[in-house]
Amino acid sequence: MYCDSENLGQGTTLHGYAIKNGFASDISLVNALISMYCKCGDLDAGRLLFEDMPKSQLQGKSIHAFAIRTGILQETHLLTCLISMYARFSNVNLSLLLFEMNTKRDVSLWNAILSVHIQTKHTEKAIAFFCDLLLMGLQPDYITVLSLISAYAQLNSLKLAHSVMAYVIRKGFDKDVVISNALIDLYARCGSIFAARKIFEGLPVKDSVSWSVMINGFGLHGNGRAALELFSEMQFSGVRADDITFSSILSACSHAGLVKQGWLVFNSMLEQGISPKMEHYACMVDLLGRTGNTKEAYGVVEKLPCKPSISLLESLLGACKIHGDVEVAEKICGMLFEMEPENSETYVMLSNIYAAAGRWVDANRVRSGMEGRQLRKEAGFSFLTVG
Fold first, then answer.
1. pTM for the model
2. CA-to-CA distance for 32 and 66, rounded, in angstroms?
């Protein structure tokens, strides 16, 4: 294998040949290529190759074993990737073990373990790790601060939002637009749209994300009119709206029940050459469903350029139940039965819709079909705190 810097070009050529001829997914070859890039000093290429591997834990473990054998496990970039990989497969304990085995005082490793705990909703542990990082004398970077803000957003505490804001200002991170955008989102989610707007207005330069998170904040608070006004202001300022911005404004229209404005925004997106994604269609279906326009919502589903997501269909089915649209409910359930034939909740929902409409024969027929498939409704449960 090519393992010196002079032959890196030849190794890269071999890599290209492997891709062209369909060998790039071979695990042994990938291992060798990662080794080649790392030993030739091109750690970024090695890391990129590792991250682009098919998301299989078995292959990931194979890379892990290879790293141990070749002695490159302590390479920081690779170690952070392994920590993140095991977390994605719900193996947080192994992520922690890798973190604790490391002897380097590198903030990127702390960022990785913070991210692991935030993604798994272990918010208090993430904050505890941040405190340990400070006690060790390490200097947080902007990624660390972003992780801290994400953790506080999960706790939904305005008091904690104020504390992280004070820390950000004290350390000078408030000059970073990415940090400021995260703070806008944090305050909006913690209930203070006023504080979110104050940060937004204080930004010397607003990027598309700044506008999007502020628009989304108004949507979260049910103020669709304010979201639309800000969207118009954004367009007037010359900042181009992207697919994330349109997702935010459509969501705001949905929460506020603004059907006409929602369609205008959706059509504006098409006119600007932005192809709608599933989340944009989902917003329109949700908007139309919420306002009782279930047949129009089903029309959107019929015209989808791709297969609808289960969550989109379930959202419309819920709207059909609320507004008593049996006809559309039957069509949606037919699609869900094809996608998830063993999901008892769809049968229960359709049976309940029939029952609410007084169609008891159809309701019993669905229940009988459910029993014939030996499907059971999942029992509900609740927690009771004593003392």
1. 0.71
2. 9
